[in-house]
Amino acid sequence: MGTYSVKFLCPGYETMVMDNVQILADSPTEYDVAMLPVEPLNMVLEIRTELGYPLPNAQLRFPGLAQSQVYQSNEDGRITLANWMPGTYQIELSAPNHEMLQTWLPMQGPHIRLTLGSSATLNEDFETDLGNWQTSGTWGRSTSNVHNGSYSLADSPSGNYGGNQNSFCRLVNPIPLQGVGNVNLQFWAKHNIRLEGDYCELMISTNGTQWQYLDHFVGEADWTLHSYNLNHLQGANLYLQFKLRTNASNNSDGIYIDDLKLYATSLPVSIQDQSLPGPCISISRYPNPFSDKLSFVIESDKKLPSDLLLSIYNLKGQLVRSMILESQGQISQTLYWDGQDSGKQPCANGVYFARLSQRGKTLQTMKTILMK
What we know:
By secondary structure, the protein is mainly beta. 0% of the residues lie in helices and 50% in strands. It has no helices and 29 strands. Strands 10, 12, 13, 16, 19 and 21 form a six-stranded antiparallel beta sheet that branches. Strands 11, 14, 15, 17, 18 and 20 form a six-stranded antiparallel beta sheet that branches.
């Protein structure tokens, strides 16, 4: 099938990237991956508008977690996550009258800023006309059921839809999605569509001729906000249509659509660790492999901070030994590992990982081999 770079993600463990992974078409690909555990942090997420103002009442969800609760930003636009395991998480961030952000977010530092836009590329409230839409059948504007304002879009504004319908309401001009960072479609819908084979489809296309299914509406539902992540269409042109299909004998009130918005923003998704840059710190070790004593040389372009921690892990991810750097303002310092664990017991021969961290944030990780 090809050669790929594979990223392994697991909350509570460092992200592991493996290059040159061979994926075969006729057999499974298996790899043993050692992922190092990380320490929990107290994280603060700042939610901002595109103008930089705090955004209160934004809601944050983690769909990938088994018990995903909803976190809400306070008046300062802040969400605090206590004892949070660093990692890369799938998130959903939303706020009234703003785009919904659905993405994978690296959460490594104690301070993350997220931006939600409120300016929609397409903002259709159907108050003026249907000049942006091509229709067939009985699609038109309705005043009988609206979510906001005086008009909504409906498949049959004058009453119930009829049988054997195959009608559409289609956006005339595509929306260009080149150079954007987040694509989110939102609209409100209310519907009463018979269950015996009738339905309304929401369809998308990148060329206006080949259409893909995105969602469908059947049965009865009051006004509901629908939101769709269309990031997979970045770089393309977006065509959009609603299509009503009914059988020969059924009829019902149909569907009403209002306040349709497409957010296609180029805002930065996140800015992490909003602080002044610290010293540039590097670590090296010798000899490798080693038998009696391994030297770790820690160097910096400035004075070394006093809160550096060197942790040694085995291949199972278990902490074997930890050493605190007691810096006295030097730019270089050496730590030694004698191949013993924290209980002064000799460690077995094999591969170990050394991680240099500062206040829970990993600065560098390296592999070493103990061979007595």
